[in-house]
Write a structure and sequence with these properties.
By secondary structure, this protein is of the alpha/beta class. It is built from four helices and three strands. The longest helix has 11 residues.
Length: 103
């Protein structure tokens, strides 16, 4: 099994602003990587010199490590979006049925 790629300077801090002046936006892409869509997206971002944040599922990372390496090589930001999207409806039904508590 391949070893995980490590960031040069990882940080646990939350990004809540940009460094650039003027108008800017943050692009985030969730639930990937999903080849071939992610690879096409990376090509477009590279062509336009745009950086983005990729919030990845652990299960998808395990299935497509080569795509994750490409995201990192293109110097985008990686974030952990959990292992998968579990169906929370069944788990939340008992909680939703309870009356709210006043604090």
């Amino acid at each position: 099994m391949a070893r995980p790629a490590l960031a040069d300077d990882p940080t646990p801090s939350v990004a809540d602003s940009t460094r650039g002046g003027g108008l800017s936006i943050g692009l985030t892409f969730d639930d990937g990587p999903n080849p071939p869509d992610t690879l096409r997206l990376l090509d477009v971002l590279r062509e336009h010199h745009v950086k983005a944040v990729f919030c990845l599922w652990g299960d998808h990372v395990r299935q497509h490590p080569e795509v994750v390496r490409r995201i990192a090589a293109d110097e985008h930001t990686l974030c952990n979006h959990g292992m998968r999207h579990d169906d929370m409806a069944a788990r939340m039904a008992p909680v939703a049925a309870r009356p709210p508590r006043l604090t």
